[in-house]
């Protein structure tokens, strides 16, 4: 392989979910089989990078001040679903069973990976819980040790004493799995089968 090709592989492998083989297939497709696609992708990424940012309210992606979900007057604003990431939010939206609003944490607590409370989108969560009329918080975080620790921390630090109902998805999602990998039917069961936390 050439040094330039190795550099492309190295860059692609930094993306989540791409191993050596997937990165190699993508690189070969863009550089050899369909080289015109590379320009389209580069231009699209440059264009989007200058426009897309986090929603000021929930942390979802948007090109405006607030995302389309936060701006949708039909949503149940009293039901707030906490997710670890934007892909998790999008996975729940694709299930078509949730009509509340979201708050994206952009991670979960992990002392091993040096992810602390100040690294998460928690200050705006605190403001929302205090200022908005939230009746229920659905904890839609991964069903693993870090996800559970994050749920516990949020409940103890930000929710207890506010009179807000707290539920936790878990039914239908295997232990150790991530929300983003669940199919719509599984997410539907998880949301409908949520339990008090």
| Weakly predicted, low-confidence segments | none
CATH topology value of the largest domain: Dna Topoisomerase Vi A Subunit, Chain: A, domain 2
Termini separation (Å)?
Answer: 53 Å
- The outline comes out as globular
Biggest sheet, open or closed, and with what strands and sense?
A: 5 strands, mixed
Task: Name the descriptors.
about 200 residues; alpha/beta; Helicase, Ruva Protein, domain 3; Dna Topoisomerase Vi A Subunit, Chain: A, domain 2; 2 domains; 5-stranded mixed β-sheet; two-stranded antiparallel sheet; 7 helices
SSE blueprint:
Layout: H1 3-12, H2 20-33, H3 35-49, E1 53-54, E2 61-62, E3 76-83, H4 86-95, E4 100-104, H5 123-131, E5 136-140, H6 145-159, E6 165-168, H7 184-192, E7 195-196
Parallel strand pairs: 3-4, 3-5, 5-6
Antiparallel strand pairs: 1-2, 6-7
């Amino acid at each position: 392989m050439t040094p330039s090709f190795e550099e492309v592989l190295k860059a692609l492998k930094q993306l989540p979910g791409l191993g050596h083989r997937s990165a190699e297939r993508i690189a070969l497709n863009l550089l050899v089989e369909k080289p015109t696609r590379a320009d389209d992708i580069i231009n699209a990424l440059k264009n989007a990078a200058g426009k897309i940012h986090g929603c000021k309210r929930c942390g979802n992606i948007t090109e405006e001040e607030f995302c389309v979900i936060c701006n949708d007057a039909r949503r149940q604003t009293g039901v707030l679903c906490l997710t670890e990431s934007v892909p998790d939010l999008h996975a729940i939206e694709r299930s078509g069973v949730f009509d509340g609003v979201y708050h994206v944490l952009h991670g979960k607590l992990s002392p091993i990976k040096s992810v602390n409370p100040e690294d998460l989108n928690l200050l705006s969560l605190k403001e929302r819980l205090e200022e908005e009329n939230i009746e229920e918080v659905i904890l839609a975080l991964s069903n693993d040790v870090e996800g559970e620790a994050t749920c516990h921390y949020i409940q103890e630090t930000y929710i207890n004493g506010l009179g807000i109902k707290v539920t936790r998805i878990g039914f239908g999602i295997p232990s150790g799995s991530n929300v983003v990998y669940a199919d719509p039917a599984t997410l539907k069961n998880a949301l409908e089968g949520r339990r008090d936390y």
